[in-house]
Amino acid sequence: MSVPPPSPSDFPARRAAMEYVCTGCASRHSVDELLYTCPECGGVLLLEDPDFDALAEAGPGYWRGLFDARRATRTTALRGVFRFYELMAPVLEREDIVYLGEGDTPIVEASAALAASVGRRFAFKNEGQNPSASFKDRGMAGAFSYLRALVRLHGWDEVLTLCASTGDTSAAAALYGSYVGEPIRTVVLLPRGRVTPQQLSQPLGSGALVLEVPGVFDDCMKIVEYLADHYRVALLNSKNSWRILGQESYAYETAQWYGWDLAGKSLFVPVGNAGNITAILSGLLKLRRLGILPALPRLVGVQSEHADPVWRYYQAPAGARRFEPVTVRPSVAQAAMIGNPVSFPRVRLLAERYQREGGDFRVVRVTEQAIMDAMLLANRHGHIACTQGGECLAGLLAAVEQGLLDRDEFAVLDATAHSLKFAGFQSMYFDNSFPPAYGVTPDPGLVNRPEAVMDEERKRALTAEEFTREAALAVARRAGLRGRSR
Predict the structure, then answer these.
(1) What's the gap between Cα 224 and its chain centre?
(2) Which residues does 481 contact at the CB level (< 8 Å), separation at least 6?
(3) Residue ranges of the alpha helices (H) in 337-455?
(4) Mean per-residue pLDDT for 286-312?
(5) How much is the average pLDDT of 42-54?
(6) Strand partners, 481
(7) Which has the closest alpha carbon to 360: 407, 314, 323?
(8) Mind giving me the DSSP string for 47-82?
(9) Is 377 helix (H, G, I), strand (E, B) or coil?
(10) Which of these, 222, 397, 248, 391, lies nearest to 308 by C-alpha position?
């Protein structure tokens, strides 16, 4: 007999006894303290509700109905990623939850012309429509909500949050930190000269302490890991398991949009530091475990050939796989330019579970040229995809070419941030000013530049009426306009 769901405006009454679980030695630890790695073996952690299977007693129809009803709630704490509260962090109180409008980002199907160009139907999930214009806001909603709970629990009078970033993490951390305010202060470490001006402006505008480090993201990550080991700081990179929980909401929203049925679909996700693909694997597995999803979709991770350690691992035969970090080269997909992903142990563990449950997990590799061409192709057909979104479209094209997808399989691509954050790369493409290390040569068919109607000297030589007429005629000629028929 089905159980009727409660009012969608009611904050959940159930609380879980959540635990950190080590991906290495499987030891379990309390969530009453900040932990990023296992105290026993140093492995990375996942968060688990040990009584999660009890949720299945209500039946999948109960959960579908509840989550669908919550889409219309006016209860602020349940409007964002915590619409799926019971699946994510059921230890938080209503007053803990931070909501800045994150989540519920649109899934926009490719136009007929773009689908024809690619050779199949697909869609982008536009994560750039989150508050700080990237998917990182999902994780920060989780991390900062948990921090508020800890501050309340321990009575802390100061909390320093810290992250390494290629841009999006710092923007999200600074935004959420500035909203929550005291006792939280935010510090971000960026690799000098490797963050776009648009992304750099965000943490500066939010008032964070921004420190630049010579090197690449991996160098910044080593520094923040050292600080987390030796000082009391709240680390906000994807090593933070509460961020992973927040990012699981991407999987839940995608499943909900398609009526809780992802059969015949594939999800394409940039790998980067592997936190997001970890979260999506975890979220899909939870939905399957409760019977909410009848079957698992295909999940495809995408890496640039300039930062491809996860692709190299899965290219090897199953019995001979060995993970080795790589030295990264310059990439337009800056958030993916990581040679030693912190969350790889999580991916390896969850991918094995995913395949045991009947899911298919793959990783494809693409060129920098393909990433830029794909981003521009998508955006000139009405999308707002960043370079990571271009990476996903390039990954879809590669997967089709390699025969990895079924003929009618529908793909959902993760556009992780707003295209405006990466406008500088578009300008470099149009101006043919990429340094040789990127390996990008503009396709003339994708290049677009402004054209002058007339120069200033000519305008000064004309009366106002003459200027209007002559400029209008020039526009009509260039645009191929036809005069009105009488």
Answers:
(1) 21
(2) 475
(3) 344-356, 368-379, 387-401, 423-431
(4) 97
(5) 96
(6) none
(7) 314
(8) EE-TTGGGGGGG-HHHHHHHHHHHTT---GGGTSGG
(9) helix
(10) 391
